[in-house]
Every structure is written in structure tokens, then in C-alpha cells.
Specification:
The protein is of the alpha+beta class. It has a single domain, classed as Bactericidal permeability-increasing protein, domain 1 (Super Roll), CATH 3.15.10.50. The protein is built from 7 helices and 13 strands. Strands 1, 2, 6, 7, 8, 9, 10 and 13 form an 8-stranded antiparallel sheet that branches.
Length: 323
């Protein structure tokens, strides 16, 4: 994602030095390291102890912790979430490219039935005096570009839902309490960006029934390549986070996005604005937007969450810092 409120140049001084032995990962790991710095510089000896003794660290994070009170919850969220959003936006574009999400190739290839009155009845009548029994388009969405241009909007801390029944969040050394909370999130295309869909080898075909009952199938009509675009694409989801209350500040021990979904109501305009394909796509795109976007929703969510998991392990985000 491209940054909306943070200049990447301004973000660089916040980057923590990554561990020398960390594996090569997309730049989102660097983005998450910035979030760590916003939580406060962690103690070198504490980080060394945690990384050199995995069993001890795992025990700390798996042990149940007292829940924070509402005052601490608000303070911790205000301390950690804004920076995490800004730096994630600064690095999302690189992550989308490195994981094959932008461009996303071979999105969907399937046959889509369309109403028979979209030229099929007329075509069968002209070609053999029959009637249409079925018409369909081979929908081959070969490429989607622009997924890297989504920007995560500012998260409203007032929208936080604290999961009071969840006592699984760990309490790292130096923390006094822990809690689990979730937030609704919204992501939109950055200003001036476009989500582009490229359809290739669009074939329209009719199946007909002759006047004496015989069935026949017409030769497919190739509609060529079509490009459709959206400038108002929006996605929603839920961000779930385990927080720890520190003195001062706080820590994030885990984070994950669920229910990531590009809105089916996204406005799409295509190159062909008249004729047969224009009529077909005006019916087809709204009907099957959910299938089209659904093909990329899960891969986007998986890419984000796999990096969140690695981030907590590689950068000790679950460590309380000091002022």
C-alpha cells in the first residue's frame, strides 16, 4: 500500500536494526519493525535472553495474564496502533509485488451463463431457425493490477471491541497485564490509483434447439481482450490484536486480519461502452464481482498474516521496552 499520512523518508529513522540472522522476507517485516520502535526501544539483554532461550520465551507467551483495565487498554492502543498503520502502508506495495499479488495473474477462468435474450435467441433464429437453450461467456480474467495501491485507513480506537473472555494473550517480561481486542478496518485505493482487470480470449457461445428438435451449437464468437477499471475499490476486514500493558507504553504480542473482502459494489467501467460486450459486461460484472474479487481476498489475507506471524518472532514485538 502507498502511504497516505507518512512519508517513507520520515519513516526510515524509526527502523530497528534487524537481527543479523533473520531470514530474507518481504519489506513488510521492516515496516513492522518500525511499529516496534513506536512501542519503545527494547532492552538488548531482554531480546538476547528471549531469542537464546525459545522455551522460556514460549512459556512466557503461553501463560495466562491478568486483564488490563480500561484506562490501560486505551493508553496501549493509542500508543501502538497509529504507527503500525502508517508503516504498514509505507511497505504494502513492496509486499504485494514480492508475493505475486500485484500483478495477480490467472485470477479466474470459467464459463459464465448469461441470459438467453442477450443475442442468443436472435442468433439461433438466424442460424438454422432454432431457439436458444443456453448461452455463456468464457470468462478468462488473466491479470489484475493495482492491489498494491490499497491504503489502510486510520483505525478508530473508539471502535475497539475488547474480548473480555479471551485470556490467552501472553504477558511478556516487564508487562503488568494483557488483553485481546479487535477493530473493523477499511482499505481504499490511494488517490489517483486504479484497479485494472484484463480479460483475454473472451468467447461467446450459444447452444440452440432446431425447429425439428435437433440440438446444435454455434461456432464461438471471440470477443478479444477487454480491460475494465475501478478507481473506487474498497476492502474491509477485522484486525485482531493481542496487547500487553507495559510501563511505559505497551506491546503487541500477535496480530491478524480476518474477513478481508474487496467490496462487491466496486464500480467497474470497461473499454467497450457500446455494442454486444458492453451489454453483456453491464450484466455480468455486478453479478460475478464477488467471485472475481473472492479469488484474491484469501491470498491477500494469507500474505498479510504470514508476515505478521514472522514479524512477532523475528523482531520481538512481544517485548516491553523502556522510555
Amino acid at each position: 500500500m502507498k502511504p497516505s499520512t507518512l512519508d517513507p523518508e520520515e519513516a526510515q529513522p524509526l527502523l530497528a536494526d534487524p537481527p543479523k540472522t533473520r531470514r530474507a522476507t518481504p519489506k513488510v517485516l521492516a515496516a513492522a519493525a518500525v511499529a516496534l520502535c513506536l512501542l519503545g526501544a527494547y532492552s538488548g539483554s531482554m531480546a538476547e535472553e528471549a531469542s537464546s532461550d525459545p522455551e522460556k520465551r514460549q512459556h512466557r507467551l503461553d501463560s495466562s495474564s491478568p486483564l488490563c483495565d480500561s484506562t490501560v487498554e486505551t493508553s496501549v492502543v493509542n500508543y501502538t496502533i497509529p504507527g503500525l498503520v502508517n508503516v504498514f502502508n509505507a511497505e504494502w506495495d513492496s509486499l504485494a509485488q514480492s508475493t505475486g499479488l500485484d500483478p495477480y495473474m490467472n485470477v479466474i477462468n470459467t464459463d459464465i451463463n448469461i441470459p438467453k435474450d442477450y443475442f442468443c435467441d436472435e442468433s439461433c433464429a438466424v442460424d438454422g431457425g432454432g431457439s436458444c437453450t443456453k448461452s455463456f461467456v468464457k470468462l478468462d480474467l488473466t491479470e489484475m493490477t493495482g492491489l498494491g495501491d490499497f491504503v489502510l485507513e486510520t483505525i478508530d480506537q473508539a471502535s475497539m471491541t475488547v474480548n473480555t473472555d479471551d485470556t490467552s494473550c501472553g504477558e511478556p517480561d516487564g508487562a503488568t497485564c494483557a488483553f485481546s481486542a479487535s477493530f473493523p478496518i477499511t482499505s481504499k485505493l490511494s488517490s489517483g490509483s486504479t484497479l485494472k482487470l484484463t480479460f483475454s480470449n473472451l468467447d461467446f457461445q450459444c447452444k440452440c434447439k432446431g425447429p425439428f428438435g435437433g440440438a446444435y451449437q454455434q461456432t464461438p464468437v471471440n470477443l478479444g481482450t477487454e480491460t475494465c477499471k475501478s478507481t473506487d475499490a474498497k476492502a474491509t476486514g477485522t484486525l485482531s490484536v493481542c496487547f500487553a500493558g507495559c510501563s511505559p507504553g505497551g506491546a503487541i504480542t500477535s496480530a491478524a486480519i480476518t474477513e478481508f473482502k474487496i467490496s462487491d459494489s466496486t464500480t467497474v467501467t470497461c473499454d467497450s461502452n457500446e455494442g454486444f460486450w458492453a451489454e453483456v459486461q453491464s450484466w455480468l460484472i455486478p453479478q460475478f464481482a464477488g467471485d472475481i474479487y473472492g479469488a484474491v481476498n484469501a491470498p491477500i489475507e494469507d500474505a498479510i498474516n504470514s508476515e505478521f506471524s514472522t514479524l512477532v518472532d523475528d523482531y520481538n514485538l512481544d517485548t516491553c521496552g523502556s522510555s
